[in-house]
Design brief:
The structure is a homodimer.
Chain A lengths: L4 H19 L4 E2 L1 H8 L3 H10 L10 E2 H11 L6 E6 L3 H8 L2 H4 L2 E8 L13 E3 L3 H8 L3 E4 L3 H13 L4 E4 L12 E4 L2 H26 L1
Parallel strand pairs in A: 3-4, 3-6, 4-5, 6-7, 7-8
Antiparallel strand pairs in A: 1-2
The structure holds a DNA duplex.
DNA sequence: GAATTTTTGTGAATCATTTAACAATAGTCC
DNA sequence: GGACTATTGTTAAATGATTCACAAAAATTC
């Protein structure tokens, strides 16, 4: 089955909302409640679910526990997912310290950096030299990596990750990789995200100014 | 004109690519070169440009300098954009230290936090008490804020930001805000991004396993 | 237990985005 | 300077995503 990223993104959101509902004591939930929780229509919810063979009960909605379980399995949250991180700079370190991951069965098991000053094998999440990444990843058959190195270094780190069998990457370097077919890449470009906000804020302001102008 | 987020996102990418081309000494660039640089078709590039009245020359492509200038203006990069940040935790601090912003005429002018231990007015980007945010933002007529506080605190910070005139938000808290109409919000949900990568990696692996099974 | 209500699930319709097709035109070659 | 080529800009077609409309079924009411 070919599904697009957005659908899976919504599944994650559904899951999160469902957990909130469960913690509030809900036993059942309807597609419109769930939709409202994440900002989509009830039809969207049902369409998404039908794609994965998730079904509810006419008039009875969806059972919270069963739904969560199905989403967990779909999203691979039934077991810990080990992830490595390249680049122990600002963002890299922030991610390592980011608590939410561990609650969510994602574990950054090691960071890697070229800077010898950053190496520290004693940490809960050790920071190891870049050149040990290959062996580490292969030994543990890790499949997912985070790239948080400066863009100059990113392509090389990317190549190394591919070479040692990583097939999914969360990338914070503001660039596009060569040889990126057959790998899953999610790019997070903070600068562009912020630029985007700024554009729309400015556009709104122009809009307002214009309207005022028209009234004057 | 109503444009969607993705188009503006691409404009940012075009701009970045163009700057790279300029630095490489290019004087002109064609839509297919530019498209390839960011991973879209040449038609997409021209369509996007035509939306904003950016035109090139038949057979001659686009002049690098003029194109950059137009994109700069469109994206509000012709002047510094001041931004405040709420939450000086892991991600907040990383953002404050993030060098790329300043090169790109985005300036985080202050961080705000409730934790007294984090307050430091002497820093290049001072960390101030949360309750000073309103006045600060109003005095400087800042329009864009970053939310990097834990999700429990996020709604309140959001309300405060709106109250003091902020109309665009980059949000790192994994949640949806109440009363979010008439504000631009870009959500960055690191957990979901990673979860997404994990899903597709797992899906790929299942795919492979299945195919092998079929062959056996 | 029939009628009514509520909610799911889905095929068709709409809406949005991307790609294809091609005319227009500027430059290049001979 | 006429023929040829490369590239833009745009209209139309195709594809993709979302919403509408409604049938089916379960629960509730009378």
């Amino acid at each position: 089955m070919i599904v697009n990223k957005k659908v899976i993104f919504r599944l994650s959101q559904y899951r999160k909302a469902m957990i909130k509902f469960r913690d509030l004591g809900f036993v059942k939930v309807f597609s419109d409640t769930l939709g409202e929780a994440i900002g989509v229509t009830s039809v969207q919810v049902r369409k998404d679910f039908s794609l994965f063979g998730i079904s509810g009960n006419k008039k009875g909605g969806y059972r919270v526990d069963l739904l969560i379980e199905k989403l967990q399995i779909l999203l691979g949250k039934d077991r810990f997912q080990e992830v490595v991180l390249a680049g122990a700079g600002n963002i890299g370190s922030a991610l390592i310290k980011y608590k939410n991951f561990e609650n969510e069965s994602i574990k950054i098991v090691a960071g890697f950096d070229i800077d010898p000053a950053k190496i520290n094998r004693k940490l809960r999440v050790p920071i190891l030299p870049m050149n040990e990444m290959g062996r580490f990843v292969r030994e543990r058959s890790i499949k997912v990596g985070i790239i948080a190195v400066p863009d100059i270094a990113a392509q090389e780190v990317f190549d190394q990750m591919l070479a040692c069998g990583i097939s999914g990457i969360l990338n914070f370097a503001p660039m596009r990789f060569r040889g990126a077919d057959s790998v899953v890449i999610n790019n997070v470009n903070l600068q562009i995200e912020l630029e985007n906000v700024i554009y729309f804020v400015n556009a709104m302001q122009k809009q307002t100014t214009l309207s005022h102008g028209e009234n004057a």
